[in-house]
């Protein structure tokens, strides 16, 4: 039975490819800056998240090294604090290097790498909008347990920070630019299949 699964001693448990689904909660804070200090502000956006993750592990003794990537829906959509502007960043990607220590079929790991999203801004008064990829960094840690030969469950924490380039939009007679700094904390759990 799955509940009785135990990894044999001195056996490579974690090497190989995996793919999984994950869900949890994201606590997000956004700073915004129009025209390089002309107007600034901030807002918070806390939402449930859902996504998928995938990657590859290599095990050497008790140490596990891996590549771990995910794409997530984070549902950032704000217009209350921005006047005629509406800001969106629905997608969050995390591409990370992972280092862990395995105790039988339980893996404790830390991970860090690149965080990415697509910022979009729209002036609802003029209909003008702009969007662009933005990149930053992410760090975190977690624990994963194999409850059968091919299936595992994990819970993890991740911090991310992403700063946008200038997004340009037409505001009345001229054009303005806005920059965003997105910072967040994620707590999520997932289930994966290992090939």
Automatic annotation (TrEMBL):
Q: Where are the transmembrane segments?
A: none
Q: Which InterPro entries match?
A: Beta-barrel_OMP, OMP-like, OMP/PagP_B-barrel
> Which cellular component terms (GO) are annotated to the entry?
cell outer membrane
* Keywords attached to this entry: Cell outer membrane, Membrane, Signal
| UniProt keyword annotation of Signal present | yes
Q: Which family does it belong to?
A: Belongs to the Omp25/RopB family.
In terms of PANTHER family, this protein maps to: BLL7405 PROTEIN (PTHR34001)
Q: Know the name of this protein?
A: Outer membrane protein beta-barrel domain-containing protein
